[in-house]
Amino acid sequence: MSCWMPECPALSMCRGLATFPITCLERAKDLKTRLGILLHKPELGHGIGTSSKLQLGSRRRDSSREVLEWRESFDQLLKSKSGVTAFHTFLKTEFSEENLDFWLACEDFKKTRSKTKLASKANRIFEEFVQSEAPREVNIDHETREITRKNLSGATSACFNEAQAKTRTLMEKDSYPRFLKSASYQDMTKQATSRGTSKRSHT
């Protein structure tokens, strides 16, 4: 309780006890210091906010650069998580997303280390994407389908390599060029380019 208030018991102690360990003046200084710290906290918060904005701006520049890199090659698109997501969304409009889903399933399959899991995963992928009349059958030739079927008898991480390569080539030659010409990707490149132009005009 502040000592300058009439009802404050510390006031009589300050007046009556010369040996009082903490004087009213020292209390006031202590209070001033505490208030100073509180007053500076918003400034600290403002500094953090500015830093976050800078980081967000950096991420936006990175993503803009990434969007423009997708048109350099199909590999660049597949290396980008956001690129794969955008491409998958486009493939859905063409009802051909099973090709990318199969390719991604094969990539995940290659990372499997357990032989037991390898065999069960191989069968599941084959039944879902490769066999004739599969629920999400990919567009591969009969010969590749049969080679893949035989590979299942001794499943290894490479048993889908040929089928995956055929599907990848199909996407690269067919779907990927259409994706680059699509309205959705054109909008993304315009936004990315405008961000880059805006950045240069402010430097």
Automatic annotation (TrEMBL):
PROSITE patterns assigned: RGS
InterPro entries: RGS, RGS_sf, RGS_subdom1/3, RGS_subdomain_2
GO CC, alphabetical: membrane
Subcellular locations according to the entry: Membrane
Keyword list, A-Z: GTPase activation, Lipoprotein, Membrane, Palmitate, Phosphoprotein, Signal transduction inhibitor
Superkingdom of origin: Eukaryota
Annotated Gene3D superfamilies: 1.10.196.10, Regulator of G-protein Signalling 4, domain 2
Limits of the RGS domain: 73-189
Renumbered residue ranges of the record's region Disordered: 182-203
Membrane topology annotation: Lipid-anchor
MF (Gene Ontology): GTPase activator activity
Biological process annotations from GO: negative regulation of signal transduction
Polar residues bias: start-end ranges: 183-196
Key word Translocase present: no
Pfam family, one: RGS
Keyword Iron-sulfur attached: no
Predominant subcellular localization, coarse grouping: membrane
Function: Regulates G protein-coupled receptor signaling cascades. Inhibits signal transduction by increasing the GTPase activity of G protein alpha subunits, thereby driving them into their inactive GDP-bound form. Plays an important role in the phototransduction cascade by regulating the lifetime and effective concentration of activated transducin alpha. May regulate extra and intracellular mitogenic signals.
Protein's name in the database: Regulator of G-protein signaling 16
Organism: Calyptomena viridis (Lesser green broadbill)
